[in-house]
Design a protein that fits this description.
18 helices, 11-stranded antiparallel β-sheet, F5/8 type C domain-containing protein, disordered N terminus, MGH1-like_GH, 6-hairpin_glycosidase_sf
């Protein structure tokens, strides 16, 4: 390739925007000081005897909320899609994974009288909501909350403040529970898209069933009060705890119910999130608000099948409530710093399982909202999550398989001219819709810089295969990555303008209109680190091209050109875009140092990203909207209708960039901070592989000691023990096994010691009950390395488009499968010839459930049989988990039997046929 020297316009001055101003009341201080062990546990333990907790106080929203009426408390699946605070009970549009039917969960009416909420008395906290209603002399104090396993509880204190006795009728009703069953009401309801069936149960303390509702009459003397409770469980068969939790809360007194829930809710923070301390209280609060967003927008319903059997992060519970692949990697980058790896592993397992072994696709549970393969870096983010948490090499091997399928699938689907660069002509595929101006420059397909994410996916596959010991596959994926890199550099680099530009395929012409997407190759480290290519970064010195804030998609000069040409589109900005900018700065400041992009710019981005998530900059009211618009130079004039959205990410920036912790594949610990001038910070008690890790900075130059028991300087603690201290913020490489510390960028080591037992990612053993369960559902046994001997498949009937062999390819993804759709038989069999006599004692069956096509369901029943030499016979002592056939994962353990042939005889569910995504035999 010949490079032509270009006459470069001198860069404009550095980003001219200053820093935002925050307002609001004082932010509550934690009740316990910094601990080199778990500060979050110290904070929780300081208040565990009561019902008032720091996280609830920190994120409390009193009175009339300018962000709107949204209920913060939620369960694994149950929440309020919208919230009507005028209703006593749970008014609004109730949801189980998504809006059920646009109706209340339940309401409690009191008569006589008209009870009106006293809005000024309202207090909402993450764990619960309190409000007061009044009618004449009668006052009702309501406290409501939703438990982890989907029980909606309303505590009511009814008080007579008048001068005469009062008799009231209380009536609780729900559109979902109308059938009398003893002293409670029950029902049955399909959730959206028929993904599962909820079995609601409604009860109340002292209430009796009456005409489809629950009634109770109370008489209050002067000054007297009555305390009562209404509870509704949204039970599902796949979450047995939903039944036991409902029974427990039904039996509790109101006071015990509230205390039990609030303590359990706040214990979750102590168990799962790291404590993060920074000098600016507005940024610190936003960090914890983002932790709450991850919890609020998390779906963990274990619906059997290939939709929502894995815990996932959804785009926004109050809006597009689905797991789109565009934002899954952004969420994974934050979720990997929750202590339990299931939070960050679940989303990539889900994407891998639902994507047919090819390019990653949106979760099929909600096909109405988005249904395409977006620009995404799931594999890259998933690999970082593995570097942080680690696990058996079989985990890495599965990740490698998904990543390979996505990289090859993206190229197969989009790279029609076979140059190693994906091309398409639809702006929505970027996830930025009308904000992506390049598509309007000239109609037709464009070779796109988003190919960088295909490259980073191939690299993730290469690294994961290498760790798993599959050298042949690692070499193949390295070759693929090299081909993609060459395609991007040779196709998209425009030497005349010294920029990466999309290319119009039909005319082989570079597209002058750009987005921040053009810089993805720098974000992932694809571009060569030479002065020639770094010239492309000069545009970030000019706020008229790429401002730090607002964080737009489009280059603003090109946006103006597009508008002048008749394509004004929109010019929204969102945390998707700030996430993209953070990734770019994070990579460039380390890998492509230049005179145009600075740590000061990064700091401004950090502050403005935080400011945008407070209504009017007031720290009392954090609200992460889907996007913002109509920036007038000092204020945001429009915030989108989707509130408390978790689009994009940000907490990883404090961990990885400010504190400097860098995920690695080997056993070393690396710090590489971006120095933004903070005098101190702490990231405490991350779960890093098999150890608890803390990073602390206390600037020695000011002589102020900010963390009790922690020396000044830059330190890491492992399992509460100091590992090393450096005298400044600098790059650090530390080997826990030997205690050696290397400072490649200078500085002095003031303390160092070895911390035995800290493992590299591949040496970590993930054996928690939940991790074992979710990986078993994805076809990986974390408890054993025993070989799967399934082979030699045949069947009584095989549907067109399926094959018997597809169910013994080692991966229970949703396609390819063996299926019996169209079979004339009420019962079909699926047989495996093991090639020789083998002693076996367990079969794992993964049944397909294709709710959208509506052909396959788990069978009504099945039987495992072996060939005894002359006939088929049932294997003895069959113990099945679950007892009844269920979509996806089923385990049958039985008395060991020696056989060469094994089969499963399946009686089809009424109106359906049976499919298998995989069969494993041990």
């Amino acid at each position: 390739m010949v490079l032509v020297a270009a006459a470069l316009t001198p860069a404009s001055a550095a980003q001219t925007i200053g820093y935002p101003a925050f307002s609001g009341p004082p932010i509550p201080a934690p009740p316990a000081g910094y601990s080199t062990a778990s500060t979050m546990h110290a904070i929780y333990d300081a208040e565990v005897g009561g019902t008032d907790f720091w996280m609830d106080r920190l994120l409390a929203r009193p009175g009339n909320d300018p962000a709107g009426n949204f209920l913060m408390t939620r369960g694994r699946g149950l929440f309020m899609y919208t919230h009507n605070p005028a209703v006593i009970g749970f008014g609004g549009r109730s949801a189980y994974w998504d809006d059920i039917s646009g109706q209340n969960a339940y309401s409690v009416a009191l008569s006589p009288g008209t009870f009106t909420e006293l809005v000024s008395s309202r207090v909402q906290k993450p764990s619960h909501y309190k409000s007061v209603f009044a009618s004449g002399a009668v006052r009702v104090e309501m406290t409501k909350f939703i438990t982890h396993n989907n029980v909606a509880v309303t505590n009511l204190v009814v008080l007579n403040t008048g001068s005469a006795p009062a008799t009231l009728r209380m009536r609780a009703t729900s559109p979902y529970a109308t059938t009398a069953s003893g002293t409670e009401l029950t029902g049955s309801r399909q959730v959206k898209n028929n993904l599962t069936t909820i079995q609601p149960r409604l009860s109340g303390d002292g209430f009796a069933v009456a005409s489809g509702g629950l009634d109770r009459t109370i008489t209050l003397g002067v000054g007297q009060s009555v305390t009562t409770k209404v509870a509704m469980g949204f039970l599902t068969s796949e979450i047995p705890a939903s039944s036991t939790e409902y029974q427990s809360y039904r039996g509790y007194t109101p006071q015990t119910a509230f205390a039990t829930h609030v303590r359990a809710y706040n214990r979750w923070w102590a168990d799962n999130i790291p404590y993060i301390d920074v000098p600016d209280p507005a940024i610190k609060k936003n960090v914890y608000y983002r932790w709450w967003l991850m919890r609020f927008n998390h779906l963990d319903v274990d619906i059997p099948g290939q939709d929502y059997q894995f815990p996932v992060s959804v785009e926004g519970a109050t809006g597009y409530n689905n797991a789109i692949v565009l934002t899954q990697p952004m969420h994974i980058d934050d979720l990997k710093y929750l202590r339990d790896p299931v939070f960050s592993y679940g989303p990539w397992l889900s994407a891998g399982q639902t994507s047919k072994g090819g390019r990653f696709l949106d979760n099929p549970g909600d096909p109405e909202n988005w249904s395409n393969s977006y620009t995404q870096y799931i594999s890259e983010a998933a690999w970082r999550s593995y570097q942080v948490h680690g696990g058996q090499p079989s985990i890495a091997a599965l990740l490698a398989k998904y990543a390979e399928g996505d990289a090859k699938g993206q190229l197969s689907f989009y790279d029609t001219n076979n140059n190693g660069v994906i091309e398409y002509d639809w702006g929505a595929l970027t996830g930025n819709d009308a904000d992506a101006v390049s598509f309007d420059w000239r109609a037709g397909r464009l070779d796109r810089a988003e190919t960088a994410y295909v490259w980073s996916g191939a690299v993730a596959a290469q690294q994961a295969y290498a760790l798993a010991g599959n050298t042949a596959k690692a070499a193949e994926m390295q070759a693929l990555a090299d081909r993609i890199r060459s395609g991007v550099v040779n196709t998209l680099w425009n030497p005349s303008r010294q920029l990466l530009e999309h290319k119009h395929v039909a005319t082989n012409t570079h597209v002058p209109w750009k987005e921040i997407n053009n810089y993805y190759p720098f974000s992932v480290g694809l571009m060569p680190n030479t002065d020639q290519y770094k010239q492309a970064l000069r545009l970030f010195a000019d706020a008229a091209e790429y401002p730090v804030f607002p964080f737009y998609t489009a280059n603003q000069r090109d946006k103006a050109a597009a508008a002048a040409a008749g394509h004004p589109g929109s010019n929204n900005f969102s945390t998707i875009n700030s996430t993209v900018q953070f990734r770019l700065y994070s990579s460039v400041l380390r890998n492509y140092p230049n005179q145009w992009m600075t740590a000061e710019d990064y700091k401004k981005l950090l502050y403005w990203n935080t400011w945008a998530q407070y209504v009017g900059g007031n720290t009392q009211w954090p609200d992460a909207n889907e996007f913002w618009a109509d920036w007038n130079g000092s204020g945001i004039q429009y915030r989108s209708w989707i509130h408390h959205n978790v689009l994009g990410s940000g907490n990883w920036t404090v961990v990885e960039d400010v504190a400097g912790l860098r995920p690695r594949t080997d056993g070393l610990i690396e710090l590489s901070p971006i120095a933004i001038g903070w005098s101190h910070f702490a990231v405490n008690n991350l779960r890093h592989r098999n150890a608890d890790l803390s990073v602390v900075w206390d600037d020695p130059s000011d002589g102020v000691t900010r963390y009790n028991g922690v020396p000044q300087g830059y330190s890491v603690y492992l399992n509460g023990t100091r590992a090393f201290t450096a005298d400044r913020l600098t790059r650090v490489l530390y080997d826990p096994a030997t205690g050696s510390v290397t400072l490649p960028s200078g500085g002095s080591v003031t303390y160092q010691t070895a911390i035995p037992g800290v493992r590299a990612p591949r040496d970590v053993v993930q054996n928690s009950t939940r991790m074992v369960d979710v990986f078993a559902k994805a076809g990986v046994d974390l408890t054993s390395s025993r070989p799967n001997v399934a082979q030699g498949a045949s069947a009584s009937y095989t549907a067109s488009g399926t094959s018997a062999g597809a169910a013994v390819d080692g991966f229970p993804i949703n396609e390819p499968i063996w299926g019996s759709s169209g079979s004339p038989n009420a019962t079909d069999w699926y047989e495996l010839n093991l090639g020789q006599q083998r002693q076996i004692s367990e079969v794992r069956l993964y049944f397909r459930d294709d709710r959208a096509a509506n052909r396959y369901r788990a069978p009504a029943s099945y039987q495992v049989q072996h060939w005894n030499g002359s006939a088929w016979a049932d294997v003895g002592g069959q113990a099945r988990t679950p007892a009844a056939p269920r979509a996806n994962y089923n385990v049958v353990q039985f008395t060991p039997v020696s056989t060469q042939r094994l089969r499963v005889v399946m009686t089809h569910a009424g109106g359906f046929r049976t499919g298998l995504t995989e069969v494993k035999i041990y």
